[in-house]
Specification:
By secondary structure, the protein is an alpha+beta fold. The chain has six helices and three strands.
Length: 128
C-alpha cells in the first residue's frame, strides 16, 4: 500500500505559495481532516443512533403497559436511558408518580428481564 505524501503545516504551505506566487485562499482557522470512506461512517452512525436496530428504550416503550398497568401507562411515558443505567420516565399525574415510586423495584426487575435491558439500574420519575 503506498504511503500518503507528508502534509506540510499551514505556515509552510503559505510560505511555498508566496514563493511561487500562488495566493493562499484557505481560511487561517480552518482545520483539514483526511477524507474517510462513506460506508464505515454511515455504519458508525447507524450503530450510534440505533437506526434499524432494536433499542432498549423502544423495547421498554413496547412493554410499558404490561409492566406498570394500563391505567398508570396512560399517565406515564418512558423517555430515555441516561448514562446507560438510568431510565427517565415522564409522569403527568402526581398520584401515578407516587404509585410508580412505591413499585420502582418491581418495575426495575421487570425491565431487567427484557432482552438487552439488563443494564438499567435506576428509575427517575419526572413531572411532565
Amino acid at each position: 500500500m503506498p504511503e500518503e505524501p507528508r502534509r506540510f503545516s499551514k505556515a509552510a504551505e503559505e510560505l511555498i505559495g508566496d514563493f511561487r506566487g500562488i495566493p493562499f485562499t484557505e481560511p487561517r482557522k480552518m482545520w483539514r481532516r483526511p477524507t474517510k470512506p462513506m460506508a464505515p461512517l454511515i455504519e458508525e452512525l447507524l450503530v450510534k443512533y440505533q437506526i434499524g436496530r432494536h433499542s432498549c428504550e423502544q423495547t421498554i416503550r413496547d412493554h410499558w403497559p404490561e409492566m406498570v398497568g394500563e391505567a398508570n401507562a396512560s399517565y406515564s411515558h418512558p423517555v430515555r436511558i441516561d448514562r446507560g443505567k438510568s431510565l427517565f420516565v415522564l409522569v403527568s399525574h402526581a398520584i401515578v408518580r407516587n404509585e410508580l415510586f412505591m413499585h420502582r423495584e418491581v418495575i426495575l426487575e421487570k425491565i431487567q428481564k427484557l432482552p438487552g435491558c439488563d443494564h438499567v439500574r435506576e428509575l427517575n420519575l419526572r413531572a411532565g
